[in-house]
Write a structure and sequence with these properties.
elongated, 4-stranded mixed beta sheet, alpha+beta
């Protein structure tokens, strides 16, 4: 996603259509009194129009067309542009009071990623950030992104890094909305997760497109977005609409066991939890949260049924790990990761665990 839009010149003033009307009057050689007589307007009304204090109505525009020969649409457009510019200038004055809000948004990183165009004008930059979030003001951003606590941990997570976290989620939303999916079907998603599990032995360039296809078939948009500084979330799940969910993972330097565990963890939130929540995972153990505990158990059991745990714990060689992986039907790296988790021997069989560097 690239920000191709260029920032056009934005004047800090508004030109009333009365200026053009005065120029037209001078070109036609009319006095203000004569124009008033010909249009049926008072001199005082024309004076207020010249100063921009009174709008050119549709009726006035029609009269000006007959008197000046300039189409009514021209006068109507001038009036609309003037009022629009006045509104923007007023909004800029209001936005200027909230420039401190920009400090919590990772604007430099969004510019570097080509998400928003660069600008030395803070007001212009603020407008671009609001456009990125699809909100009209920092207050609206707080209402949409920061204050809702529908998910169990959302309020505390956003309190720690509201700007970076919201930016990472928003990048995922934008990508996810561009992915065409069928309406969500829980049965199809559950069945396709079994197929996705069989992809763990492949390389990312092979399994990522297939994962996205299988997820989209079930109404889930699967997207990968590089983590943002101060928001190193492993994954997230969120409903974009009642019939479309987003499953978001970061994609830099992730070991395969964590990648697949996080994917199925987030998949559990989509399958089993409320559609009103935003679920964020940072790889920590949240035993006091039933939804997170259930998601952890779902992911672990989906990848490697617990009945294999005793045999995995007894493994003493890479050949045994590989043999078990073949029996279970997953990548050796996942079995090595389960061994480390069960035994706390974090260096054993580490060479079997691949690290993915997936291109965005």
């Amino acid at each position: 996603m690239k920000a191709k839009r260029q920032n056009p010149f934005q004047p800090d003033y508004a030109v009333p259509p009365g200026d053009t009307l005065e120029e037209t009057m001078e070109f036609l050689g009319m006095t203000q009194r004569e124009l008033a007589d010909r249009t049926g307007l008072t001199v005082q009304t024309l004076h207020r129009i010249f100063k921009g204090e009174q709008p050119i109505t549709y009726e006035t525009a029609n009269r000006l067309e007959l008197v000046t020969g300039t189409p009514a649409a021209f006068w109507n457009n001038l009036e609309a542009q003037y009022r629009e510019q006045l509104a923007k200038l007023e909004q800029d004055r209001e936005l200027a009071e909230h420039l401190d809000w920009l400090k919590q948004i990772p604007t430099k990183e969004l510019v570097q990623r080509g998400t928003i165009p660069a600008s030395d004008d803070k007001i212009v930059l603020l407008r671009e950030v609001l456009r990125f979030y699809s909100v009209s003001s920092p207050a609206a951003w707080r209402a949409v992104w920061h204050e809702p606590a529908a998910a169990a941990r959302r309020s505390t997570i956003f309190a720690s890094s509201p700007g970076p976290t919201s930016a990472w989620l928003r990048l995922g939303q934008i990508q996810a909305r561009q992915i065409e999916t069928r309406p969500y079907d829980k049965k199809v998603f559950a069945a396709n997760l079994r197929v996705i599990r069989d992809l763990t032995g492949r390389e990312p360039e092979a399994f990522v497109p297939e994962m996205q296809r299988l997820c989209a078939e079930a109404g889930v948009a699967f997207v990968l977005v590089p983590e943002i500084k101060k928001a190193p979330w492993s994954g997230a799940a969120e409903w974009l609409s009642p019939s479309k969910a987003m499953l978001l993972l970061n994609l830099r330097g992730k070991s395969e066991d964590k990648f697949w565990f996080t994917f199925f963890h987030e998949a559990s939130h989509i399958l089993n939890d409320s559609k009103k929540g935003t679920y964020l995972d940072d790889g920590k153990d949240y035993k006091d949260d039933p939804a997170e505990k259930r998601a952890d158990e779902f992911a672990a059991e989906m990848l490697i049924p617990s009945t294999f745990d005793p045999a995995i714990q007894r493994a003493t060689s890479t050949d045994e790990i590989k043999t078990l992986a073949e029996r279970i039907g997953v990548s050796p790296g996942l079995v090595a990761g389960r061994f480390q988790h069960l035994t706390k021997k974090w260096t054993h069989f580490h060479s079997l665990i691949r690290r993915f560097e997936i291109e965005e």
